[in-house]
Amino acid sequence: MAKISFHTDLADLPYVGPAYVAKLNKLGLITVKDLLYHLPSRYENFQLVSHISLLRPQEVVSVKGKVLTIKNVFTKNGKRLTQATIGDESGVIEVIWFNQIFLTKIIKPNTHWIFSGKVDFFGRKLALMSPQYEPFKNSNDQHEGYLSQIHTGRMVPIYPETAGLTSKWLRAKIAYLLKFYSDIVIDFLPEEIIKKNQLLPLPEALLKVHFPKNFEESEKAKHRIAFEELLLLQLSGLKQRKKRFSQQVGLPLTINPFIEKLTVYQNALPFNLTGSQKKAITEILGDLAKQTPMNRLLEGDVGSGKTVVASIAAYLAILNNTQCAFMAPTEILAHQHFATLSKFLGPLGINIFLLTSSKKELPIDFDFNQPFIAVGTHSLLYDHLDFKKLSLVIIDEQHRFGVEQRLTLTKKGKNPHVLTMTATPIPRTVALTFYGDLDLSILSEMPQGRQKIKTWVVPEEKREKAYEWVKQNLESAFVVCPLIDESESLISIKAASKEFENLKSIFPEFKLALLHGRMKSTEKQRILRNFKEGKNNILVATPVVEVGIDIPQANIIIIEAAERFGLAQLHQLRGRVGRNNQQAYCLIFPSEENEHVLNRLKALETVFSGPELAEIDLKLRGPGDIWGKRQHGFLNLKAADLTDQNLIRETKNEAEKIVETDFEKEYPELVQEMKNLTQEEYNPN
Ligand code: ADP
Ligand code: MG
Hints:
- By secondary structure, the protein is an alpha/beta fold.
- The chain is 36% helix and 19% strand.
- Strand 5 (112-122) and strand 6 (125-135) form a beta hairpin.
- Helix 6 (202-210) packs across helix 7.
- The longest helix has 31 residues, at 215-245.
- The radius of gyration is 31 Å and the shape is globular.
- 38% of the residues are buried.
- The chain binds adenosine-5'-diphosphate and magnesium ion (MG).
- Adenosine-5'-diphosphate binds next to helix 10.
């Protein structure tokens, strides 16, 4: 066997067969390092070692004892039990396992074992029920007893969702690596940083995060890993930033000669720009005037007016006799942007064209030297599209493009300015931690004249009154059922069906329909069409169903068990109503009514910006809940907590100091680790 290192493929480890490799890979664990960094989500506390005579029902304990007898018993009702008796110097107790008859082949009489589990009555006698078991060894291993018992008699690591791999299996493999190959773990953090921040060295941190002797040890170990995680994240952002600041735009843009034109353009818009639009424009123009390429993210809810803001940047590119590429992930979005830009910039005689997979031809004699704005999908990436003067790249919903695709587009120019846009509500804190090379503008208000969706958090005692009110005011309503699990299970569907029946009796005068994710697509289409045409007035839906289609007359949305959603998710849900100019309403029913829950939900009554709500949630609940599981893939931090402002600040300070140095030479190990980051990066350069 080749020498094992951090980067050894798990498939090359002894006793790991192909079936296990497949399961490991499914969890994203490919190398030895991945496995060692697969951290426990919690620990089972089996630290209390007790004498048998002292055992009490319901206690979770560990017992060291000699096996006196062990046998399998088949009960009349078909159960298969393994029944053992064990003894120590204080007494004897029975041990029971269900459906594990192989244990009689492993656990033999007259051998010493340690058992960890719960004490309970079995029949009339106390017994240790289904305990974990492990041969008892005297702890003289070289890790000072950290690895002598791994499944029992200690804090035992439990691993997150494991795709068919048991925590026991993972534990054994990780312990094996730590035991026999501890020398493969080499600390890549500079020693002065470890000292100054009082961090555990990496080998110790990995040992103690998996197999701590107590809670403090596990916390300290996790802190070290969180530190390096945030440090690397920020470092890679700052490194990108440093690189960008060393670059010069290929086609500098000037603003001063065009200030008047830009002002005239803004004044000619058929509406007044919002305060945050104006602020974003100032920030963007500030960037465009610089010699270093812009890298800015413009963030705002759907309808907050991002395209109009972007149009000003595009206009400046044209005024400078250069070109702009505007890429969107779908044809529909590309069409929308094309329509908006044509409406506002078209009358100025600016050449704007649309390229999508269904429309990709340009005139044969197309002049690639003239100023123009090319709006399109991935089609903009085609080779034949030969921008000669590309100064500005705008990318909508950029996370839906791969790094390669973004790079291909920017490479069509020479260090062009880049403006990205997103409607994903990323809290400012998260953006600045994750995307260290990104400047951020947030549109935190909706354009004037647009009705705010009146939102009320309704306590249970007012439910009936609320239903009365709904009867008076209903045009069409969505009722969103409780979020039970992320992927729609039968339990969710049952809950929705029950709510559907319940509401039928509450709203006998209305026509109700039920929509859930397990319905056939044609059935869903039919229900949505009926709803749109007004044949039904109340649509009861499970949360996973995309009720995203436009139902202009829908004026009320009721959300059940709302505390199970993130605030930004709730905000997105309420965006389903109010699609025409009439007042729309959102009624939020919590299923728990403690002060904490109510206060959090009440933010929705006064805040109408996705990013702001996400930021509030981040502070109150941590990142996991902001978007729901499906959307926050890029928040896959192993140990770090994005609400830990102190740690974010400390690591940022260190990262800033490091990038000041000639760090590629000074800290080669760190640089190597940065390269291994699979982090989604906003910087397309
Ligand atoms: P986004 O791209 O953020 O979803 P758009 O830029 O497409 O939003 O704007 C949505 C609609 O609102 C467009 O029709 C746009 O013309 C209009 N709009 C943009 N800004 C304003 C404003 N300040 N006041 C009124 N309407 C606006
Ligand atoms: Mg848009």
